[in-house]
Write a structure and sequence with these properties.
By secondary structure, the chain is α/β, with parallel strands linked by helices. The protein has 11 helices and 12 strands. Bound molecules: 3-phosphoglyceric acid. The site of 3-phosphoglyceric acid has 10 residues, from loops.
Length: 309
């Protein structure tokens, strides 16, 4: 009988650690086969997922003996938390374990887009040498605006400050007297959007945040601002982003998360849009973070199965 079903990629050492003590079924593509998943989970006490597996509906209903869900990441929007709570199923995210990878993605993208020097391969191969066209900007002295000021945003703030940035943030859920505000100016959303050179979104996707960064928000941004979304698709209006970039009303954007993943038909929207970096929801995924996330979740799932958590 299987004890643990793993539906997406997980660090091999962590899978080996689990397999030494439990019967493990690991299929990194199982997230795309919900009918097979529903059959496989019927008797298992533990399920380990990333963000592509929908832990809800038929899958949860079929998983009658489920005790614990290990989440190889932080966001919980792919898990029906209400049903898990009601059924006493423990859900363990890998809080903190992929933070550094996200921070490096945000800072790296910001530097690349501010500098604007890395989109010239085709011209250079064709014999051009566009030296004066590629005079970009430094990150030092720029203002970093964080929309959401949780743990990953605070780490991003710390890295930005080390690079000489000033930092402002919007987060109505972090009280004004919270010590975290020592590292960022506390502003309303409009003020963060209108005064920042680099805007980075760090919010969960909820009914309240859905569509928060829409046409009005883009209209408030500086025309040379850089926008980074490595949080969740759906928070930012993709058509509004494309409109702003095409109209030259935004300096650039790095987008890692999308309303629909993979993009399928929606991908056409982004074709030939200038100063845009698209990545497939990998801001939190590096060799190092995969090791940390997988090790942490494996430990927590084993602890839950053994009555230690
Ligand atoms: O929620 C998260 O932590 C990130 O979106 C990364 O999730 P993933 O590792 O499941 O892709």
């Amino acid at each position: 009988m299987t004890d643990i079903v793993i539906t997406e990629f997980m660090d091999e050492a962590a899978v080996a650690m689990l397999s030494a003590r439990y019967s493990v079924h690991h299929d990194p593509d199982l997230f795309g086969k919900p009918d097979e998943l529903a059959k496989l989970v019927a008797d298992v006490p533990a399920l380990i997922v990333r963000n592509q597996t929908q832990v809800r509906g038929d899958v949860l209903a079929a998983a009658k003996k489920l005790k614990v869900v290990g989440r190889l990441g932080v966001g919980l929007d792919n898990i029906d938390m209400e049903t898990c709570d009601a059924r006493g199923i423990k859900v363990f995210p890998a809080t903190g374990a992929n933070s550094l990878s996200v921070v490096e993605y945000v800072i790296g993208s910001a530097m690349m887009l501010l500098r604007g020097a890395y989109f010239a391969n085709a011209a250079m191969v064709a014999g051009e040498f566009p030296k004066t066209k590629l005079i970009g900007r430094e990150i030092a002295g720029k203002r970093l605006g964080l929309v959401g000021f949780g743990a990953i945003a605070r780490d991003t703030a710390a890295h930005g400050r080390l690079l000489g940035m000033t930092v402002a943030a919007y987060d109505p859920y972090v009280p004004a007297d919270h010590p975290a505000w020592a590292s960022a100016e506390r502003l309303e959303l409009d003020a963060v959007l209108s005064t920042s050179d680099v805007i980075s979104i760090h919010l969960p996707l909820t009914p309240e945040t859905k569509g928060l960064i829409g046409k009005d928000a883009f209209a408030r941004m500086k025309p040379d601002a850089i926008l980074i979304n490595a949080a969740r698709g759906g928070i930012m209006d993709e058509a509004a982003l494309v409109g702003a970039l095409k109209a030259g009303k935004l300096g650039g954007a790095a987008i890692d998360v999308f309303a629909e993943e993979p993009l399928r038909g929606a991908g056409k929207l982004f074709a030939d849009v200038p100063n845009l970096i698209l990545t497939p929801h990998i801001a939190g995924n590096t060799v190092e973070s995969n090791g940390r996330v997988s090790g942490l979740v494996a430990e927590r799932v084993m602890a839950a199965l053994e009555g230690r958590a």
